[in-house]
């Protein structure tokens, strides 16, 4: 089976712009979770989608949003980018909820905000 | 105080040594995850535990639910084990809480 894929892998944006990142889960997986990783804060949970519904959301401002499509592919959007949004954004998929099942991580999208 | 604490932050070992990384958490959990991250960012899930002990090759993970503590052990360490190891708690609040990670370097 193909692994989790994320596009794009690298992205440079300027402050105030918006960005959309994409994640394609392993075939058959219904849960997609998103994470932000920065040198200062480490890994932080953004949100989880299961069967097109957001199950839970981490402590991030409303500028961070996401959605999941009927084929389980997921997108996350960050509007009005700030310098502090520069990070590695990772998605992970699992058969069921991410909390109680093994997660399979994508390679990440590295976002730089100038 | 972080809800998930890992120790040590950094660890250097000689090839062949037995390694232990510790994780303490203060949240109620549905499962405890151990992750491995290599330079370049790729993350691999090593274990998911809700009780007891699991073993995969040279890696062993244990959890004590009453004490809210988990350990990751690596037997006969090898330079290819060099990576950052991250403990993550799948909390009862339906989110994931991460430790800061342990950077392991195994020297030949």
Describe this structure as you would to a colleague.
The complex is a heterodimer of chains A (about 110) and B (about 110). By secondary structure, chain A is an all-beta fold. Helices cover about 0% and strands about 55% of the residues of chain A. Chain A contains no helices and 11 strands. Chain A is globular, with a radius of gyration of 13 Å. By secondary structure, chain B is mainly β. Chain B contains no helices and 11 strands. The termini of chain B are far apart. In chain B, about 35% of the residues are buried. The chains are: A mainly beta (about 110), B mainly beta (about 110). Chains A and B meet through strand 4, strand 5, strand 6, strand 9 and strand 10 of A and strand 4, strand 5, strand 9 and strand 10 of B.
Oligomer class: heterodimer
Query: In angstroms, what is the radius of gyration of chain B?
Result: 13 Å
Structural class of chain B: mainly beta
Count all strands of chain B and give the number. 11
- What is the count of helical runs of chain B? 0
Question: What is the chain-wise order of helices and strands of chain B?
Answer: EEEEEEEEEEE
Number of strands of chain A: 11
Helix share bin of chain B: under 10%
The N- to C-terminal Cα distance of chain A equals 37 Å
Please render the helix and strand layout as text:
The complex is a heterodimer of chains A (114) and B (108).
Chain A: E1 5-7, E2 10-13, E3 19-24, E4 31-38, E5 42-50, E6 53-57, E7 64-68, E8 74-78, E9 87-94, E10 104-105, E11 109-113
Parallel strand pairs in A: 2-11
Antiparallel strand pairs in A: 1-3, 3-8, 4-5, 4-9, 5-6, 7-8, 9-10, 9-11
Chain B: E1 4-7, E2 10-14, E3 19-25, E4 29-37, E5 43-49, E6 52-56, E7 59-64, E8 69-74, E9 83-91, E10 96-98, E11 102-107
Parallel strand pairs in B: 2-11
Antiparallel strand pairs in B: 1-3, 3-8, 4-5, 4-9, 6-7, 7-8, 9-10, 9-11
């Amino acid at each position: 089976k193909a692994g989790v894929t994320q596009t794009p892998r690298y992205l440079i944006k300027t402050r105030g712009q918006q960005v959309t990142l994409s994640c394609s889960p392993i075939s058959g997986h219904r849960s997609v979770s998103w994470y932000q990783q920065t040198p200062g804060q480490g890994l932080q949970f953004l949100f989880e989608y299961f069967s097109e519904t957001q199950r839970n959301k981490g402590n991030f401002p409303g500028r961070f949003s996401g959605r999941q499509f009927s084929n389980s592919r997921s997108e996350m959007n960050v509007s009005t980018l700030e310098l502090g949004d520069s990070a590695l954004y990772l998605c992970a998929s699992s058969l069921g909820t991410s909390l109680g099942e093994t997660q399979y991580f994508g390679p990440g999208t590295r976002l730089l905000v100038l | 105080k972080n809800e998930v604490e890992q120790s040590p932050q950094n660890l250097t070992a000689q090839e062949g040594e037995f390694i232990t990384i510790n994780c303490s958490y203060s949240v109620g959990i549905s499962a405890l995850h151990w992750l491995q991250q290599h330079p370049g960012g790729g993350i691999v899930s090593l274990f998911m535990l809700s009780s007891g002990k699991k073993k995969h090759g040279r890696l062993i993970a244990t959890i004590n639910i009453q004490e809210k503590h988990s350990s990751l052990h690596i037997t006969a360490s090898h330079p290819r084990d060099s990576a950052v190891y991250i403990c993550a708690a799948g909390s009862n609040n339906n989110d994931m809480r991460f430790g800061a990670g342990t950077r392991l370097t195994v020297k030949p």
